[in-house]
């Protein structure tokens, strides 16, 4: 049961270093607090090594990358790897620009990543390069649907094996895979796409779940995905007349704040393939 | 009727590249989603040309400009112009510092802007230079009121003709002008000034309206202004005991989220001069 | 009575220049508007001198410092000092990295600070250096509790004398001291720690209170601390079933928005030692 993994976050209060975009950074900080973690943000190359040293995990999000913060990502990443910390990469916009694609690929190459979380397009870019699909594996479709699920699961597991990292592909159906197992998760609501940053929030929260559950990384990553999707469901149920995406944003974070292991266990919808 | 222009945003889902300040960036992203657009943020000079190429419009806001992001504004702006994209300038704080005044003036000179949106003080600075009023045109008053409306309308149209761009001056009364016509808009509430970023949000949203309505730029820009003001009215009506500017901020974005063409048509308050 | 000091903010509408982190900057801007002030953000070295010149106070927060913004802090700080403006330092994370510790110490040395606001760990770092406790004064405990209150009050007054600035130490019990008097404040709720940025917000608001009350800096700083804590209490009372830290964040800013002198006088809980 996945409920245990959020309980461990609340028990251990993992400190997470975030190098993240300035669009959604406040929500990332608040969702980390909501799930029981503790956030620190720092992207200056001269600052990041000290900061990451006192944390348990590093969440690298390239959403508004710049030359300075990219250097910060590498320096923080190398130090975090030396210390055996959890390192998660959120390759926001990989495939949309050369700088993003190359930065994500470079970080993947140089760092021992614990997990990579993105949408199918971003993950495909990392797997096949340059955003264009090439070769046999390129058969994986542009969206994970019931019709393409088998090939997507195979792709996720294969890429996890190749990358040596947990691969989390989020969308209408979420996949969380290592080389052997793949969680197929059906929590969440389409209206979550009407809010900026639910993916960024999930990456921050997943980092906390990984830090707090060192012996069960795959299950903990899946628990974070279920928690985020379930919060989207609970938050939606609390929507009132006249509410929109701004209210929904707050209600999702609030649902995480109030979620305990029992709620997560009762609401998580997943199978393992 | 202006309702059609928001419907076109929802239909076309225009992708808008924002180089915007880090104070209000999250609200800009969420209001773009709320009105039916799709936001991307990027300000790194090495990243912006790729990003703007996949978008339909560029929203340049100088609210927390720095040397790096200014270079990003020029590079993105030039590429967007080459591609015939919509380019909007929000000259936040023009007149308050030399760097802001010069950056806004430089962007105006080098780029073919589709629209410029600011308060009367910022627009006057662009029109007359250096924030000080000079010459005959300088008779335009410091605020657009019923008493100064005629001269303000003339000023807006004249400056639109000179700048070759739509000029949107927002305040108690809003003006949206090209060389020939000027919308005079009386939507909105004074309490909107108690929230940071309603102007920035409007600039983002206006960019989406312009992209989605290529054959009616002036009307689309006016529709965006009416939509924002009307959302301020609808949001205020939903305020509850104990609510303040934070709740109001959310309620305005929510009102945009729930606004369709019929609501906008029914609530838009404007005349054309 | 402290109520007068918030009334003066609403009357004078002090313009506050903030060089602050990008995590909580939107909340800082909105809380400044909520209390009656007016916020401007700028961190570019070429921009800050002009901007700070038109303001009444400068709020320096090192939460996401970088090489460029550090230069901005010094340049803005020097100009603000020349002009006799209020300058407040929020040494976020001092003690957690060498860059933060050294930047906070350097700003303290070079600038004539009006006030320093941080948690006990950050303030200890500034008082004793490097985050490690040294010498006799180092007996001050790691948290301000009823048991350690006497020594903490003595520490705050001594450090205020040495620093030549008001020292505000916030936590379960808040201390606001100059060399002679120390306010001991018992407003607030522990759940405020579950929101990112209540400290940053307080620093912004305190700067506005200091600017608007030039003849009573200590009392005005204490009033800001009471106002923030009281808003935390009022906001909590308005929490509804299912609300969490996101809703709480908004309710606190809303409580500031609705707070007048009479509410602050009735709710402020403090003694002077």
Provide an overview of this structure.
The structure is a homotrimer of 273-residue chains. With 273 residues, chain A is α/β, with parallel strands linked by helices. A nine-stranded mixed β-sheet of chain A has the order 2-1-3-4-5-6-7-8-9, with helices on both faces. Chain A is globular. The two termini of chain A are 16 Å apart. The interface between A and B is medium-sized, with 30 and 30 residues.
What descriptors fit this protein?
homotrimer; globular; 273 residues; 9-stranded mixed β-sheet; UDP-N-acetylmuramoyl-L-alanine:D-glutamate ligase
Helix content of chain A: 40-55%
Which topology of chain A does CATH recognise?
A: UDP-N-acetylmuramoyl-L-alanine:D-glutamate ligase
Helix vs. strand class of chain A: alpha/beta
Quick one: biggest sheet of chain A? 9 strands, mixed
Distance between the termini of chain A: 16 Å
Could you say what the CATH architecture of chain A is? 3-Layer(aba) Sandwich
> What is the oligomer described by this structure?
homotrimer
Dominant shape of chain A: globular
Largest interface: A-B, 30 and 30 residues
- Please provide the count of β strands of chain A: 9
Radius of gyration of chain A equals 17 Å
User: What is the CATH C level class of chain A, in words?
Assistant: Alpha Beta
The amount of beta strand of chain A, in percent, is 5-15%
Strand order, main sheet of chain A: write it out.
2-1-3-4-5-6-7-8-9
Average of per-residue pLDDT values of chain A: 95
Number of structural domains of chain A: 1
Q: Quick one: CATH superfamily of chain A?
A: Ribokinase
The total count of helices of chain A amounts to 11
Low-confidence stretches of chain A: 132-138
Order of helices and strands of chain A: HEHEHEHEHEHHEEEHHHHE
């Amino acid at each position: 049961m996945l409920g245990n993994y959020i309980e461990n976050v609340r028990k251990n209060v993992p400190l997470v270093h975030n190098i993240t975009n300035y669009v959604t950074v406040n929500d990332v900080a608040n969702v980390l607090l909501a799930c029981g973690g503790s956030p620190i943000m720092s992207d200056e190359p001269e600052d990041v090594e000290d900061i990451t040293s006192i944390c348990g995990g590093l969440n690298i999000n390239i959403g508004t990358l710049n030359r300075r913060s990219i250097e910060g990502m590498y320096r923080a990443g190398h130090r975090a790897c030396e210390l055996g910390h959890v390192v998660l990469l959120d390759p926001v916009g990989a495939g949309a620009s050369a700088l993003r694609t190359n930065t994500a690929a470079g970080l993947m190459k140089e760092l021992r990543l614990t997990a990579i979380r993105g949408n199918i397009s971003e993950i495909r870019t990392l797997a096949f390069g340059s955003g264009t699909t090439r070769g046999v594996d390129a058969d994986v479709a542009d969206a994970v649907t019931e019709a393409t699920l088998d090939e997507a699961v195979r792709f996720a597991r294969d890429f996890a094996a190749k990358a040596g990292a947990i691969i989390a592909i989020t969308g209408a159906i979420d996949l969380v895979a290592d080389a052997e197992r793949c969680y197929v998760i059906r929590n969440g609501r389409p209206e979550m796409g009407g809010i900026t940053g639910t993916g960024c929030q999930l990456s921050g929260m997943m980092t906390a779940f990984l830090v707090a559950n060192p012996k069960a990384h795959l299950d903990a990553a899946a628990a974070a995905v279920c928690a985020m999707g379930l919060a989207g469901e609970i938050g939606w149920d609390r929507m009132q007349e006249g509410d929109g995406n701004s209210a929904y944003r707050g209600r999702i974070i609030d649902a995480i704040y109030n979620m305990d292991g029992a709620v997560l266990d009762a609401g998580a919808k997943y199978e393992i393939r």
